[in-house]
């Protein structure tokens, strides 16, 4: 598990659900494809990936969404996503 918190910069447009999986796989030291049952819970068991992606996607006019964060627990990590798309694990 991560010590002191890890972050992933998602300034390049990546679906937020994919960014979360990547951050956790990096922290665990495994490829993203290996984050699967029975060792790891599926992301969709803790949060709706499509809703998460939509929440952080640009508005229909291309503008950014207003500030805010989302926090949830996934694979033993407290995952916090900032409005700029940064993923923090603790």
Would you give an account of this structure?
- The protein has 90 residues and is an alpha+beta fold.
- The chain has one domain (6-89).
- Helix content is 23%, strand content 20%.
- It has 2 helices and 4 strands; from the N terminus they run E-H-H-E-E-E.
- The protein has helices at 16-28, 49-56; strands spanning 6-8, 69-74, 77-82, 87-89.
- A 4-stranded antiparallel β-sheet has the order 1-4-3-2, with helices on one face.
- A hairpin with a 4-residue loop joins strand 3 (77-82) and strand 4 (87-89).
- The longest helix has 13 residues, at 16-28.
- It is elongated.
- The N and C termini lie close together (9 Å).
- The model has no long low-confidence stretch (mean pLDDT 86).
- InterPro entries: HalOD1.
- Residues 15-88 form the Halobacterial output domain.
- Pfam families: HalOD1.
Task: Describe the structure concisely for a colleague.
The protein has two helices and four strands.
Give the radius of gyration: 13 Å
Helix-strand topology string? EHHEEE
Number of domains: 1
**Annotation, overall tally of beta strands:** 4
Describe the main β-sheet briefly. 4 strands, antiparallel
Terminal Cα span: 9 Å
User: Helical residue percent?
Assistant: 10-25%
The backbone outline, from C-alpha atoms, is elongated
Point out poorly predicted stretches. none
Question: How many alpha or pi helices?
Answer: 2
Structural class from helices and strands? alpha+beta
Physical arrangement of strands within the biggest beta sheet: 1-4-3-2
Overall mean confidence score, pLDDT:
86
Percent strand equals: 15-25%
Protein name: Halobacterial output domain-containing protein
Pfam families: HalOD1
InterPro entries: HalOD1
Domain Halobacterial output: 15-88
